[in-house]
Design goal:
Length: 249
């Protein structure tokens, strides 16, 4: 009888272990957490640099993150582009969201803040899992008129969508040779007549900056009035350079 009991116990133990292993094998190693802002136990604010503040850069930056089994952010990538699908909740619901180009200065600040975020570990059926999701940061500039030599200057933020004429920059041969690409941000001042009177690069690949500045100088805007008086406008124009097909592989 004792021998039969021992055999039954061994069989029961083996079956229980097998069931546990099978259950764990069915647990996904990575789950979708949706928007994660409200789930963090530590969520540092991004640094709003003086350079970005002076240029009046603002907007929403979305960062796709991957959180490991200990609750640390191990990957952070900027979600950008004109149109994308954003996961809104943990149930997997998504919707199309129109996206403006993300300014490189704001993108870098948001990414660094996301990497410093901390979350509680997540388990599924007792098994630690990774979590992927999104952290959303909102940058808001304080726009105040500033008097300069009798003419006021206001901040216009990102000016791409406000131009009546916005020439595209050429792709420089030197940049083509090294397959340089990415966004270039040019800080500009628009005169009372709508002409660009100042253009300085503030971010982007060195080989792409000159072409971006030259294009920005050729941009045209409608005159801006404040209380009926003409004003200058400061802001940024962002150009996105992509290597021609077949050269970025």
């Amino acid at each position: 009888m004792k021998r039969i009991g021992s055999v039954l116990f061994a069989v029961s133990f083996v079956l229980s272990t097998a069931a546990l292993i099978l259950a764990q094998s069915d647990v996904p190693r990575e789950i979708n957490g949706g928007v994660l802002n409200g789930k963090a136990i530590k969520l540092p604010k991004p640094v709003y640099s003086e350079e970005a503040r002076a240029a009046g850069m603002e907007g929403t930056v979305r960062v796709n993150v991957l959180i490991d089994e200990l609750g640390n952010v191990i990957s952070a990538e900027i979600f950008g582009g004109r149109l994308g699908r954003v996961t809104q909740s943990a149930d997997g619901k998504t919707e199309n969201v129109e996206m403006e180009p993300v300014n490189p200065l704001l993108a870098d600040a948001a990414r660094q803040a996301a990497l410093a975020a901390k979350f509680s570990p997540t388990s599924l059926n007792g098994v630690p899992v990774k979590v992927k999701g999104m952290i959303v940061y909102n940058f808001a500039a304080v726009k105040q008129p500033v008097a300069t030599t009798g003419v006021k200057t206001i901040s216009g933020g990102v000016l791409n969508g406000k131009a009546v004429s916005l020439p595209l920059p050429p792709y420089p041969p030197a940049a083509r040779a090294v397959r340089a690409s990415g966004a270039v941000t040019v800080q500009v001042v628009i005169g009372e007549s709508g002409e660009v009177i100042s253009a300085q690069p503030v971010a982007g690949h060195p080989l792409l900056r000159a072409a971006a500045v030259e294009a920005a100088r050729g941009a045209k805007f409608s005159p801006t009035l404040l209380s009926g008086d003409p004003v200058k406008v400061s802001g940024v124009i962002i150009y996105n350079f992509a290597a021609p097909d077949g050269e970025n592989k």
